[in-house]
Amino acid sequence: MNLIPLTNESQLTDIVNDSTTVVLFKHSTRCSISNMAWKMFQQEWNNSETPVYCLDLLNYRSVSNAIALQFEIEHQSPQVLVIKNGTCVYHATHQAIDAAIVQAALQN
Length: 108
Hints:
4 helices, five-stranded mixed sheet
């Protein structure tokens, strides 16, 4: 997994302005549901090419708020988003997070 910590809003600006397709995974490190979703996602993910940005909501809440504003998607935790050409083309939360579905969204 090409994992990149998402820690500041300038990274989000770079993601929006870049033509690269990326995955954003937002989670709360204190939430058992969020931690379980994150672990399952990591175990099921088999794509080493697509960058996966991981956002720790507790330490970087302002970045999470910026994501919600930028893509006009209500903040949830856990939450996964697929960003292509600066646009969110797929998002899911909680039990709907499935690495296979995210990978399918990358192909569309």
